[in-house]
Amino acid sequence: MMENEFKYWHYLKEFDNCPSTECKTIEIQAFRWIFDDINNPDNFKPVLLITPARINDQKFDKNEQKCCGYALSLFNTLENARNKFINISNRNKCFETQVGDNVAEITIEEHEGVATEPSTNKSNLGHFEFFEFIETNFFDKITHKEKIII
Questions:
Q1: Helix (H, G, I), strand (E, B), or coil: what is residue 78?
Q2: pLDDT of residue 1
Q3: What is the maximum span of the chain, computed from C-alpha positions, in angstroms?
Q4: Cβ partners under 8 Å of residue 114, min gap 6
Q5: Measured distance CA(141)–CA(26) in Å, rounded
Q6: Measured between alpha carbons, how far is 96 from 113 in angstroms, rounded to an integer?
Q7: 28 forms bridges with which residues in the sheet?
Q8: SS3 of 106, please?
Q9: Cut 0.70: pTM above it
Q10: Neighbours of 86 (CB within 10 A)
Q11: How confident is residue 3, by pLDDT bands cut at 50, 70 and 90?
Q12: How far apart, in whole angstroms, are the C-alpha atoms of residue 82 and residue 150?
């Protein structure tokens, strides 16, 4: 096995420049929506592995977006994760059944993968994609979990 091999490389290799060469290793406290059951297998699974048919959704119409569908969706602050969750939940009443209604704080270390820059767009503030290396296991790295109250 190669060092720093991506966890979902067999999907990523289908797209040019995936992950983008602009992605960088990071050390950060990050936040992700999860289910109440901390061991739910979907808690740290990319969206296109949870729901593969979504690759045909309009959201994934470009190869760059399809590539990011195999990364973990994370936020750089608890507040940004909460705000985005509430915003989507207000428009989609079934949202929490798809992603859970808790937010987990995890510690990302430099050797665990590469990330896009956090968004500065107000509608998606602090959101970033994280492409995990094969040995990364965030189930063991949750430092805090709390229910999101709407």
A1: helix
A2: 41
A3: 44
A4: 19, 23, 24, 25, 26, 130, 131
A5: 15
A6: 27
A7: 108
A8: strand
A9: yes
A10: 13
A11: low
A12: 9
Kindly report, residue by residue over 43-95, the tens digit of the pLDDT. Answer: 999 999 999 999 998 989 999 999 999 999 999 999 999 999 999 988 887 77
- Contacts of residue 10, Cβ cutoff 8 Å, sequence gap at least 6: none
First to last CA, the chain: 44
SS3 string of the chain? Answer: CCCCCECCHHHHCCCCCCCCCCCECCCEEEEEEECCCCCCCCCCCCHHHHCHHHHHCHHHCCHHHHHHCCCEEEECCHHHHHHHHHHHHHHCCCHHHHHCCEEEEEEECHHHEEECCCCCCHHHCCEEEEEEECCCCHHHHEEEEEECCC
Q: How many residues does the chain have?
A: 150
Residue with tokens 């428009």, as numbered in its chain: 91
Segment 16-42 shows an average pLDDT of: 96
Q: Each residue of 101-127: pLDDT tens digit?
A: 999 999 999 999 999 999 999 999 999
pLDDT single digits (tens) 31-51 = 999 999 999 999 999 999 999
